[in-house]
Amino acid sequence: MMYWQKDIETMSRDELNKLQLERLKQTIELAGHSPFYSKVLKDNGITADSIQSLDDLQKIPFTTKDDLRNNYPFGMAAIPLKDCVRVHSSSGTTGNPTVVLHSAKDLDQWANQVARSMYMVGLRDTDVFQNTSGYGMFTGGLGFQYGAERLGALTVPAAAGNSKRQIKFITDFGTTCLHIIPSYATRLAEVMYEIGLDPRKDTKLHTVCIGAEPHSEEQRKRIEQLLGVKAYNCFGMSEMNGPGVAFECTEQNGLHIWEDYTIVEIVDPQTLQPVPEGEVGELVLTTINREAMPLLRYRTRDLTCIIPGECACGRTHKRLARFKGRSDDMIILKGVNLFPIQIEKILMQFKELGSNYLITLETVNNSDEMLIEVELSDLFTDDYSVLQRLAKDITRQLKDELLLTPRLKLVAKGSLPTQEGKAVRVKDLRKFC
């Protein structure tokens, strides 16, 4: 069977729209019980009955991360706390953390959502699934754990870090699938090769689910080549439960966003008006299958577009293109707007380069400059003239992509800091007056 829930995954557009409208009205009714939304809806004259079509969703104001922080901890709750069974939160490094509450029904639906996603990429109850994400308050750990268990796979809750232990579990337990951050996937592969293990021959790995940080198509291909697997992009965020909001199918041509759980909008981040399918804008999501803490028109800050047309896999749920970046991660340098993923896209095209790089923004002689340090592959030469030609070629391609000329520094493998969590790719040392 190709589908976890064929009737839902292959619904016609008319059926999906009808289901979404029905669930949206129920969600608005429920959201009105929260301290935050009761005021928002009342101030804007919105009731469930006032929503007669999906177009009426635009009558509702946007919800932002600041709204969640300002209503910390439980001002967004739509049901009594005694009916909530779990809370997740962000780190809160820039103020109050964002808190998300779940009922037992919410957790059950979330597990099904992740299981559906994993089944879509070919995982079955015969697989051994190893989760390298952190558990605790981070949703990536428990989200995939419960989804894999719902799928029926043997699960290895390895958690983050300790590469040699991860490798031991992979070889000893016959792990066939990993959930892993892209930058750590390449690092783990490097450790395998360093200890004389070829993951393409010496493990049973065939699938990895990658997400939690932006990555380019070139990075995905490198992961597939290093590990001998198929790598599928997944998208999630704690505000929308966590992993499983959208997931690639085996076509690897966009992430299907599960529209029986979420209504998707793409808006211009400046005007906040809807943009046509195929045009990049900010992703806005509305939950329609959650009871503890529904969110209406939540601005994710992620930049993507809806891919027009049908998917060859037969699923009818809309597809999101690979994320360009985040509107709040955008670098503005010398009047040019750019994203780190544009740089990665160029770097990963060169087989002479490793996977680790660092972008440093600094002020030199009252002018803002960009320095890109990137590690060389350990298989490459130390011939100065060859390195000089390589640097010149990379710089030219970066200039063509970014419309400005960065300084490039090729460094030996292992020279740059490595992280077993999300990679730190940008260091901004500019002096702002």
TrEMBL record:
Q: Which residues form a coiled coil?
A: none
Pathway-wise, it operates in: Aromatic compound metabolism; phenylacetate degradation
Q: Which residues form the AMP-dependent ligase C-terminal domain?
A: 335-430
Recorded catalytic activity of this chain's protein: 2-phenylacetate + ATP + CoA = phenylacetyl-CoA + AMP + diphosphate
Which Gene Ontology MF annotations are present? phenylacetate-CoA ligase activity
Q: Does the keyword Nucleotide-binding apply?
A: yes
EC number(s) per entry: 6.2.1.30
| Keywords on record | Ligase, Nucleotide-binding, Phosphopantetheine, Phosphoprotein
Does Nucleus count among this protein's keywords?
no
What biological function has been recorded for the protein in this entry?
Catalyzes the activation of phenylacetic acid (PA) to phenylacetyl-CoA (PA-CoA).
| Identification of the protein by name | Phenylacetate-coenzyme A ligase
Q: Which organism is it from?
A: Parabacteroides faecis
